[in-house]
């Protein structure tokens, strides 16, 4: 008789939670996503999907669904904050995909979520379900919700973001680490930016300056420009996709910057503002029946553009391992998942912290040395973008 398949409950319907549910269902495992929001309102501006995240989306059957909404920028272009001089460029369209086996995409987070939902199909997500507690029982775990409901599953996956209730409930309280910086983000319709001729090209722009940096790229098949402007502010500690900042404040923070940057900022009426937090790497993610995924496990600053990509990598690895385990093999599968994913995400957490400082150096010898290092970026980032999460898992678990 075939071993009993585990029933899996996922807490959180963000990119990671939806992706792992797809991966599980494709292997015939019943998985239900419990999401606190009453509707998936698709906030969050744009994200970059590297070849590593793309490979995971392809494995889940979602990459083709997204292709129409995504942009493949022609190059990454680093610019001097005041003069606008191009300091380093790297080809993205073409060369990047040849090297790393999949393209580099810029896309609205909403489009990723919609594509994942479409692939998941109806009936797999329970909305308005805010988890308050998870308790491990002998052969499973029980989730309790704010409305008094309960559900029991063979395995529970906490994919509920940086403030994870699952993590808190199972592992106790811990503190998010505030970076002392804020990210202003917005999508600006491209037709408001017609006076900036350089935007006719589809480029990933990275403007680096003293104490600030500004990243912009087209999304929605080129219909809008997404920007992220990172500024220091030790006082602002609100972390939400939907908090609005003041345009005037943002413009003042970039006073003296090249008109390319200030004109984009000026064209945006209400930027979202997001205090940037991460967490110290965790030593343990899993118990026998409960594990963490994505930001819940390894929240990182956005300076490698890898948070969502890592959630996708986690999702395909965990789904594969649970898919190969019967209900009796859940504990072993969760341990293998954690072993496979912890070292890599730990490195990315540390690297993302380091990048912030390096992006924001004052003009001078250190900034020049950084620009010199940036010429080697494709080699330096090969371990991130060239990674095949499932391939690496197979290598790790192959008999020697
Ligand atoms: P989340 O997206 O946070 O989803 C968690 C879900 O759980 C949400 O739907 C939430 O409503 C739900 N939830 C929370 N609590 C509960 C509860 N108690 N019960 C039930 N449901 C709950 N990543 C990239 O890869 N590329 C980028 O270019 C990039 N840019 C970024 C720029 C900025 C400024 C920031 C802040 C982040 C960026 N990221 C980027 C990171 C990326 O957005 C996150 O890492 C990613 O969204 C994490 O996905 P997740 O599914 O783990 O968590």
What does this structure look like?
The protein is α/β, with parallel strands linked by helices. It has a domain at 7-70 and 109-176 and 280-360: FAD/NAD(P)-binding domain. Helix content is 36%, strand content 24%. The chain has helices at 15-26, 51-59, 63-67, 95-100, 109-120, 165-171, 247-253, 259-266, 295-298, 307-324, 330-359, 365-374, 377-380, 382-385, 389-397; strands at 8-11, 31-34, 46-49, 75-80, 86-91, 105-108, 125-126, 131-136, 141-145, 150-153, 155-158, 177-189, 203-209, 212-219, 224-232, 272-278, 290-292. The strands form 4 sheets. The protein has a 7-stranded mixed β-sheet with strand order 5-4-13-14-15-12-16, with helices on one face. Strands 7-2-1-11-17 form a 5-stranded parallel β-sheet, sandwiched between helices. Strand 8 (131-136) and strand 9 form a beta hairpin. Helix 1 (15-26) runs parallel beside helix 5 (109-120). The chain is globular. The model has no long low-confidence stretch (mean pLDDT 93).
What's the helix and strand layout?
Blueprint: E1 8-11, H1 15-26, E2 31-34, E3 46-49, H2 51-59, H3 63-67, E4 75-80, E5 86-91, H4 95-100, E6 105-108, H5 109-120, E7 125-126, E8 131-136, E9 141-145, E10 150-153, E11 155-158, H6 165-171, E12 177-189, E13 203-209, E14 212-219, E15 224-232, H7 247-253, H8 259-266, E16 272-278, E17 290-292, H9 295-298, H10 307-324, H11 330-359, H12 365-374, H13 377-380, H14 382-385, H15 389-397
Parallel strand pairs: 1-2, 1-11, 2-7, 4-13, 11-17
Antiparallel strand pairs: 3-6, 4-5, 8-9, 9-10, 12-15, 12-16, 13-14, 14-15
Helix pairs in contact: 1-5, 1-10, 2-10, 10-11
Bound molecules: flavin-adenine dinucleotide (FAD).
The site of flavin-adenine dinucleotide (FAD) has 33 residues, from α1, β3, β12 and α10.
């Amino acid at each position: 008789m075939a071993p009993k398949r585990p029933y899996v409950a996922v807490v959180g319907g963000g990119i990671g939670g939806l992706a792992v549910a797809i991966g599980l269902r494709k292997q015939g495992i019943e998985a239900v996503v419990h999401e606190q929001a009453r509707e998936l309102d698709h906030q969050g501006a744009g994200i970059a999907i590297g070849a590593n995240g793309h490979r995971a989306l392809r494995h889940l059957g979602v990459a083709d669904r997204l292709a129409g909404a995504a942009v493949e920028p022609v190059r990454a272009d680093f610019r001097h904050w005041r003069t606008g001089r191009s300091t380093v460029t790297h080809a993205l369209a073409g060369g990047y995909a040849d090297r790393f086996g999949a393209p580099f995409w810029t896309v609205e987070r909403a489009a990723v979520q919609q594509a994942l939902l479409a692939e998941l199909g109806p009936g797999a997500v329970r909305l308005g379900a805010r988890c308050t507690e998870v308790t491990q029982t002998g052969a499973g775990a029980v989730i309790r919700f704010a409305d008094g409901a309960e559900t029991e599953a063979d395995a529970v996956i906490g994919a509920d973001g940086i403030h994870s209730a699952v993590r808190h409930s199972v592992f106790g309280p811990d503190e998010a680490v505030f970076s002392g910086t804020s990210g202003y983000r917005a999508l600006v319709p491209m037709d408001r930016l017609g006076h900036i001729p350089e935007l006719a090209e589809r480029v990933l722009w990275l403007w680096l300056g003293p104490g600030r940096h500004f990243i912009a790229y087209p999304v929605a098949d080129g219909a809008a420009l997404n920007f992220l402007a990172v500024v220091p502010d030790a006082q602002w500690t609100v972390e939400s996709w939907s908090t609005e900042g003041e345009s005037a404040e943002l413009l003042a923070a970039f006073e003296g910057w090249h008109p390319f940057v200030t004109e984009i900022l000026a064209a945006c009426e209400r930027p979202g503002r997001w205090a940037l937090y991460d967490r110290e790497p965790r030593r343990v993610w899993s118990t026998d029946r409960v594990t963490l995924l994505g930001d819940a496990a390894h929240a990182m600053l956005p300076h490698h553009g890898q948070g969502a990509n890592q959630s996708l990598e986690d999702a395909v690895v965990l789904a594969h391992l649970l898919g190969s385990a019967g209900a009796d093999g859940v504990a072993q599968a969760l341990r293998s998942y954690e072993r496979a994913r912890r070292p890599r995400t730990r490195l990315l957490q540390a690297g993302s912290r380091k990048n912030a400082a390096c992006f924001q150096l004052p003009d001078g010898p250190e900034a020049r040395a950084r620009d010199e290092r940036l010429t080697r970026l494709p080699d330096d980032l090969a371990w991130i973008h060239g990674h095949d999460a499932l391939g690496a898992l197979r290598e790790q678990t192959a008999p020697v």
